[in-house]
Amino acid sequence: MLTHLIEFIARLHMVVLHFPIALIVCAALVETTRLLWFRCTRRSIADHFRPSNAASVMFAFAFASTIVAITTGLILGYDYGQSADLHRILGLLSGALILITAIALLIALRKSTFKSSIVYLALLCPSAGAVCATGHFGGDLTHGKGFLTNPLKQIINPTPDPQSDPQSDPQIQALNLTAESIEIYNTIIQPIFDNSCIKCHGKRKQKADLRLDSLVFTLDPELNIIERGSPDDSELIYLIELPADDEEIMPPQDEADPLTQDQIQSIRNWIQSLI
Ligand code: HEC
Asked: Whole-structure pTM over 0.70, yes or no?
């Protein structure tokens, strides 16, 4: 039960992470647009530059949600293997920057001097930039590298997209599969692996040097876990069909639920159909 609870807390990262991004960007926008009206106000400079109440409240919520996002993110990252990737480093750096900005905000609110306010405002915009960059690299992790920018690259330099036309990918062509087998893999088999296996056999962790996050890896002849056309001789089928309490079953017994009969049958049918 505890592992499920931790998993739930870790996955909250995917929800909470949006708060610091939106709130800090909003706080920075509110402050900068307000400052642009400088000429229209008749207040003293120190008064004018004093952090606004609305943006300060936004920043306070942003600060709190940053702490939650970092904590849940670290737990989630731990589950996927401790690689010091760009997303994690940027997340921690953003956290440090936001902490410094929070201290600057407290000082600015307290002292209300021009200098202290400027220090805060000068830190707020880089903080917003840092969380946006962190979010961008996090997006690359969940959606794949270039998820956001690839369509733009296609506009500038159109090339066939292997995702929309898998048969144009030379590595997939080399596997010599029918269009139907590729389609079934992408729509039925890969989602099963995504759900139950890639945590340990994916981009970030490769237990037994095995990756199951794409067709090319799954059918890698060197690993030989799938005997094309013969599910009964495939190591992968052997491992997923073991009794639930067997030490060798995949996914390992304490880590995830065994695959359902329907899922196993789909994988069997797919392997059977491979020529
Ligand atoms: C919690 C981590 C974890 C999950 C989830 C997991 N595996 Fe594994 N897998 C391992 C480990 C660890 C090994 C190495 C076991 C050994 O060598 O005794 C392994 C080995 C394997 C092997 C043998 C590879 C070889 O070259 O001998 C296959 C096949 C396999 N897993 C398939 C799967 C499939 C299919 C799923 C999902 C249904 C899955 N695994 C889910 C951790 C995991």
From this structure: no
